[in-house]
């Protein structure tokens, strides 16, 4: 009787627990499992096996839990109606789906806040100002670091933000003033002459430092008219027309009391004035972002009287300028020709020009310096290379003539066809300009050729591509030298352990 009552008491407790699972009395299934054939008659361990429904529940006689525990079927190895691998896949899928949903919600919240932020900002500063901010925010983090702000600061300083200045009208509107028509001839830089392979950036336009270089296929203006009177800066100041007289048309602005160079972290040229205007507009025929003042020495433009007679003056000149080929958010990319040289035959009153020519000399294997930033800090992200450009020149198509003159243009006179009262050779004239722009060469003008050759050979032996800094004695003894790339890679640590002697 006691055993029967005990059995009934257990039956009642188990029935109550199983009701929460499937509202079915588990003792109805007490006995041998029809699937796994396990014996469940032992009162000390009552096993409720529901293999055909995916529920295996066991209770301990000594400690009956309030919640049934799962029991694996010996035959089917099922858990809640699923195989073990199906259950693991289901859990993994659930986790991945939850993660995607969470990330999507976070992204939507961030974008919605950003949209609200931009909308509020636009109401106060306008869309154009907002787009300017985003251009200079190169890492797109919503903030301008000091390095990102630097090129914008240059624009603020020269009052050149969000507008293009209209310089002095270069084409006269009166019939009695002459106009000179100039044509531009340009061939892109040969990428095969570079040591750097830019093909790796071909699919990443926004992150390609050479993007502007690759897009520069033709001259910005293939033909343009200029008022002849604006070329008066090519005449010597104070009317000093004497063969061999050399002067600066544009003087250097570099201050050697500071760094001796201008920042590379810039995009847009500063405003130009007076004599700079005509040079700026001439070189803009190649590319709109031209800097009349290059970042490094030599800087400016110098000229010399090569020949003269009672009517005409033959002026030779040399210009050092450079171009910025990229715009924000791309990093700055500088295109610096070795030099622009040329000559102009102009009358003494600057009212008529017989011939004008300007070009980048192409007789050397390499004639263009390339420098670009890979990040906002130019101190440790600058890279350099040297390449070759076949043709970059401006040439007058005919002598200047009045606007109302519809007759056929005159034939350009050659230098040899003009009777000069006094003149010097073209090579000597260029040498004088070179010594004017490179002051150290003036010290060698009294040295003999053997000494110069010896010093040049020693310096050439110490040189490695692209730029080498050398400390040497006047006789050519190299004391120390370092390559520019090594200096930028190691920075100040390169000086550790270096011994300098004088």
List the helices and strands and how they pair.
Elements (H helix, E strand, L loop, with lengths): L1 H21 L22 E6 L4 E6 L8 E2 L13 H42 L1 H10 L9 H12 L20 E9 L24 H5 L7 E5 L18 E5 L24 H9 L6 E2 L8 E9 L3 E9 L1 E3 L8 E5 L2 E8 L5 E7 L8 E6 L4 H4 E6 L4 E5 L4 E2 L19 E2 L2 H12 L11 H14 L5 E5 L5 E6 H7 L12
Antiparallel strand pairs: 1-2, 2-3, 4-5, 4-16, 4-17, 6-8, 7-10, 8-9, 8-18, 9-12, 10-11, 11-14, 12-13, 13-16, 14-15, 19-20
Helix pairs in contact: 2-3
The tally of strands reads 20
Taking the sheet with the most strands, its summary is: 10 strands, antiparallel
What is the 3D form? Answer: globular
Could you tell me the strand content as a percent range?
15-25%
Structural class: alpha+beta
Query: N- to C-terminal separation?
Result: 118 Å
Helix fraction, binned, reads: 25-40%
- Based on CA atoms alone, the radius of gyration comes out at 41 Å
Low-confidence stretches are: 1-15, 17-80, 160-166, 492-502
Question: Tally the helices: what do you get?
Answer: 10
Order of helices and strands: HEEEHHHEHEEHEEEEEEEEHEEEEHHEEH
Estimate the mean pLDDT confidence. 75
Summary, kept brief:
This protein has 502 residues and is of the alpha+beta class. Helix content is 27%, strand content 22%. α2 packs across α3.
Structure notes:
- Strand 19 and strand 20 form a beta hairpin.
- The chain is built from ten helices and 20 strands.
- Helix 2 crosses helix 3.
- The protein starts with a helix and ends in a 12-residue tail after the last helix.
């Amino acid at each position: 009787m006691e055993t029967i009552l005990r059995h009934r008491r257990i039956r009642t407790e188990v029935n109550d627990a199983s009701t929460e699972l499937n509202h079915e009395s588990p003792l109805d299934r007490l006995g041998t499992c029809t699937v796994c054939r396990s014996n469940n008659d032992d009162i000390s361990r009552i096993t409720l096996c529901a293999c055909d429904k995916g529920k295996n529940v066991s209770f301990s006689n000594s400690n009956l839990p309030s919640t049934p525990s799962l029991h694996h079927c010996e035959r089917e190895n099922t858990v809640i109606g699923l195989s073990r691998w199906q259950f693991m896949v289901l859990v993994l899928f659930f986790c991945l789906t939850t993660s995607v949903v969470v990330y999507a919600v976070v992204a939507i919240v961030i974008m919605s806040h950003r949209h609200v932020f931009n909308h509020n900002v636009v109401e106060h500063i306008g869309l154009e100002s907002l787009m300017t901010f985003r251009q200079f925010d190169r890492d797109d983090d919503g903030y301008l670091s000091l390095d990102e702000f630097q090129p914008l600061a240059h624009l603020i300083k020269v009052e050149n933000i969000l507008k293009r200045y209209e310089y002095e009208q270069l084409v006269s509107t009166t019939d009695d003033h002459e106009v000179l028509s100039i044509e531009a001839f340009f061939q892109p830089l040969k990428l095969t002459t570079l040591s750097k392979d830019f093909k790796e950036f071909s699919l990443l336009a926004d992150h390609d430092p050479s993007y502007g270089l690759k897009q520069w296929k033709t001259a910005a203006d293939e033909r343009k008219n200029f008022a002849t009177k604006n070329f008066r800066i090519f005449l010597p100041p104070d009317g000093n027309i004497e063969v061999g007289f050399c002067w600066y048309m544009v003087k250097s602005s570099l201050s050697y009391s500071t760094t001796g160079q201008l920042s590379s972290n810039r995009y847009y040229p500063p405003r130009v004035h007076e004599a700079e205007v005509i040079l700026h507009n001439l070189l803009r025929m190649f590319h709109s972002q031209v800097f009349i003042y290059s970042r490094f020495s030599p800087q400016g433009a110098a000229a010399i009287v090569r020949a003269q007679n009672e009517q005409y003056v033959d002026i030779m000149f040399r210009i050092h300028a450079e171009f910025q080929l990229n715009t924000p958010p791309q990093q700055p990319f500088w295109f610096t020709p070795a030099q622009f040289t040329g000559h102009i035959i102009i009358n003494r009153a600057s009212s008529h020009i017989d011939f004008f020519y300007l070009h980048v000399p192409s007789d050397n294997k390499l004639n263009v310096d390339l420098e670009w930033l890979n990040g906002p800090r130019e101190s440790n992200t600058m890279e350099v290379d040297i390449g070759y450009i076949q043709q970059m020149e401006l040439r007058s198509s005919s002598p200047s003539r009045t606007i109302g003159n519809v007759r056929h243009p005159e034939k350009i006179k050659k230098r040899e066809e003009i009777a000069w009262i006094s003149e010097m050779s073209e090579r000597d004239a260029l040498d004088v300009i070179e010594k004017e722009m490179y002051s150290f060469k003036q010290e060698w003008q009294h040295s003999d050729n053997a000494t110069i050759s010896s010093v040049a050979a020693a310096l050439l032996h110490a040189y490695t591509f692209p730029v080498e800094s050398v400390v040497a004695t006047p006789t050519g003894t190299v004391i120390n030298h370092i390559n520019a790339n090594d200096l930028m890679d190691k920075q100040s640590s390169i000086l550790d352990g270096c011994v300098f002697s004088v």
